[in-house]
Amino acid sequence: MMSSGQQQNAENDGLVSMANRVMLGIESSCDDTSIAVLKGRELMGQFAAVQHIHSKYGGVVPEFASRAHQAHIVPVLEGALKEAGCVLGDIDGIAYTRGPGLHGSLLVGSAFARSLAWSLGVPLYPVHHMRAHVVAHWMADATLNPRQPMMALTVSGGHTQLLEVLSPTQMQVIGTTMDDAAGEAFDKVAKMLGLPYPGGPEVDRLAALGNPKAFAFTAPKMTGHNFSFSGVKTSVLRFLEKTFSDGSEASEALIQDVCASVQQTIVSILVGKLEAAALERGMKAIAIQGGVSANSGLRKAVEELGQKHGWDVHIPPFRYCTDNGAMIALSGQYAAEKSVEGRLDEAPLARWPLT
Ligand code: KG4
Ligand code: ZN
Questions:
Q1: What is the pLDDT of residue 259?
Q2: Which residue(s) pair with 154 in the sheet?
């Protein structure tokens, strides 16, 4: 058994090696291929390829997504290495998204990561995508020393999770969505309004020009820490059907008002749940992460919530909100600290519970 002094030394050694370790992070769970190189918690370079083909279909088409990852992954790796100013021989470990996500998309990233780790002879770190969104707060250029514990809300295209976060490696889901994810609600409403995919950023942009009090859309009556967004979506659909039953077309001003009102409704559901959970658990810090944390209305409302209660607020910079290789590489750094290595014969996990 180690003495506390030895343990301290081991931890210090761990920290030193983390600071010098160069980790590659490969993200391919949905429609973005993103690869980053990290030294310790510092971003050396990140490169991504976004797939535009899905906008034609109003949502991600899994078959097209995996084919595009296949085409993009080598140039994306070359871009990340070039930006980082390093070569493959400098890489000490490879982290990749093992799941959850689209199976065909995960297969491309995981097969690539495993082959690369095998050929370079470096350790491999399989990463949980939803944990990685939370880990993004520990990037050296994200938040300075996130306060622990914190109540964190992950809002993305596929998930909505409320988590009690004790550290970058210890977290527990206390609430989730019963139907659509928050990002999905934004994307579906955008589709009804004829806006391009992904709809979230479009709704955000148009909401800034509209009146958030113009229309009242149904907010669900969900008790506890779980969420529901299907009622909001149906309420917008009914409103549009009624308003345009005579075949008339929506004016620009009406679309802006619908976007502002929907965004207001979704944000108030999210912030209400975050506030209640943080109060219930006596938290002094709150955080948001995932693609929808790029939403300007949500960022503002969460900042105001923090001010109201005197809580620390952690919101990642935009480059770490939507899917990114950096959060995967950083998760790999923490896994390496604990020597949690993956195997070369491991298959991706399209479904993978967080706890
Ligand atoms: O985390 P992410 O990049 O991918 C998943 O893991 O799903 O999240 C993508 C989601 C999409 O639904 C997109 O519409 C939404 O994040 N999103 C936004 C904004 N930027 C991205 N939603 C609202 N406002 C935004 N500014
Ligand atoms: Zn994500």
A1: 98
A2: 161, 289
Structural domains in the chain, CATH included, are 4-137+322-337 (3.30.420.40), 148-315 (3.30.420.40)
**pLDDT < 50 regions, the chain:** 1-16
Helices 296-309, 252-280: crossing angle, 10 deg rounding: 30
Which tens digit of pLDDT belongs to each residue from 174-200?
A: 999 999 999 999 999 999 999 998 999
Please report the pLDDT score of residue 9 as a whole number.
39
Ligand 2 centroid – CA 113 distance (Å): 18
Q: What are phi and psi of 313, to 5 degrees?
A: -120, 130
Confidence (pLDDT) at 16: 42
The maximal CA–CA distance of the chain, rounded, in angstroms, is: 79
Pocket of ligand 1 (CB under 6 A): 30, 156-158, 183, 186-187, 198-201, 204, 290-292, 294-295, 322-323
20 class by beta-carbon count within 10 Å (0-12 exposed, 13-18 middle, 19+ buried): exposed
Which ligand is in closest contact with the Cα of 292? Answer: 1
